[in-house]
Design brief:
β16 (243-246) and β17 (251-254) form a beta hairpin. α2 (31-43) crosses α5 (189-198). The protein has helices spanning 3-19, 31-43, 63-71, 131-135, 189-198, 328-336, and strands at residues 23-26, 50-51, 76-77, 83-90, 98-108, 111-120, 129-130, 148-150, 158-159, 163-164, 171-172, 179-181, 208-211, 214-217, 227-231, 243-246, 251-254, 263-265, 286-288, 314-316. It has one domain (3-351). It has 359 residues and is an alpha/beta fold.
């Protein structure tokens, strides 16, 4: 690996830390954020806390992270999302016609950050998440204390729905939000793998593997924390059936997809462009696409010849998310979903305060 790239990145990291010394690292446990965290801590000598968002039903998938937390003596913070939603689009990996992501909105200063979590179809007796339970999970927020956040996103990154999502800046400024610091924007996947290997830090064996051709993502995602087995039978808006089989209830129930909060994430400066036909303004961070969605051939990304099977992205919003705007679909879901799915944590409209625009 080119040592000059490492030295250049270390110099930049120290300069940024001098300017924004009250910062935090967003760490998923994936290769990019792990390389970022290692370089900051062990090469640049910058000791800062970490935020990691975990799935409560799949704690065992964070074994690698837990090991590094202990070995590196990390200060790790975690908090509840403020809202949940769904995203879908053409599966560019070619595995399925349509791919679904679970969206989790987290407080991000006075705005929000969106974590896109990939899904896999449950097989046999595999442990899985019920999509309805995901949408009705507990929510909350925190008093965000940091002025900046280091994020491992790179310019070469791809998304299994959006395709290539080029990053247009090293530093992202958004009113009411922490500064986003993309320290490794110019690094490639090979740079990341080589840096980790030469540093004696091997990528998570549950996500990555090395062959004679080099490192790559494992096809087996049964232990991958970025992809969660999820049942979406009754909220799959691409199904033409009015009824769906529910493995949780072991019964046939009504397809409720017309009430599910589907959203098409759009951030032009982060490479996330519209996929579905929608009347929403493309400049807005989130385009509502609840109900049946028909793919738009003009805006849908085209499959690439060798699209990497990348981790799901973390996306800072470009403006505050207001309760009367983005939360409309989620509030409707909480009010209109069938009684057998409701619980005290369901997403009612009154849970979204106008005084908290990130909700």
């Amino acid at each position: 690996m080119d040592e000059s790239l490492i030295n250049k990145t270390i110099i930049k990291a120290r300069a940024w830390h001098k300017k924004w010394n009250n910062s935090v690292v967003l760490w998923s446990g994936g290769k990019d954020s792990t390389a970022l965290l290692h370089l900051l801590k062990f090469r640049a000598g910058i000791q800062i806390p970490v935020v990691q968002f975990r799935e409560p039903a799949f704690r065992e998938r964070y074994e690698y992270s837990d090991r590094l937390i202990k070995d590196w003596n990390l200060e790790v913070h975690e908090y509840l999302p403020s809202k949940m939603a769904l995203a879908d689009g053409p599966d560019l990996s070619g595995k399925d016609k349509i791919r679904f992501d679970l969206l989790k909105y987290y407080q991000w200063g006075k705005t929000c950050i969106v974590l896109s979590l990939g899904t896999e179809r449950p097989i046999a007796d595999e442990k899985y998440v019920c999509g309805v339970d995901f949408l009705a999970r507990p929510t909350g927020g925190i008093n965000w204390p940091w002025s900046a956040a280091w994020i491992g996103t790179k310019n070469c990154d791809t998304d299994l729905i959006k395709g290539h999502v080029p990053l247009s800046m090293d530093i992202r400024y958004v009113d009411g939000a922490p500064i986003s610091l993309y320290l490794m924007r110019d690094w490639t996947d090979d740079d990341i793998y080589e840096y980790l290997e030469m540093s004696g830090v091997f990528p998570d064996e549950n996500r990555y593997e090395k062959s004679i051709t080099g490192w790559d993502h494992k096809k087996d995602k049964s232990k991958n924390a970025d992809f969660i087995p999820t049942c979406l039978n009754c909220i799959d808006r691409h199904s033409a059936d009015k009824f769906a089989y529910c493995p949780k209830l072991k019964a046939t129930i009504t397809n409720m997809s017309d009430k599910a909060p589907y959203e098409d994430i759009v951030f032009s400066d982060l490479g996330f462009k519209p996929i579905w036909n929608t009347t929403a303004n493309p400049a807005e961070p989130v385009a509502h696409t609840s109900g049946a969605g028909l793919c738009c051939g003009v805006t849908a990304p085209m499959p690439q010849e060798s699209l990497p099977n990348t981790s799901a992205p973390t996306i800072p919003c470009s403006r505050p998310i207001f309760a009367d705007d983005v939360s409309r679909c989620a509030a409707r879901w909480g009010e209109e979903s069938p009684a057998q799915y409701t619980n005290p944590a369901q997403t009612h409209a009154e849970h979204f305060s106008k005084e908290v625009p990130f909700a």
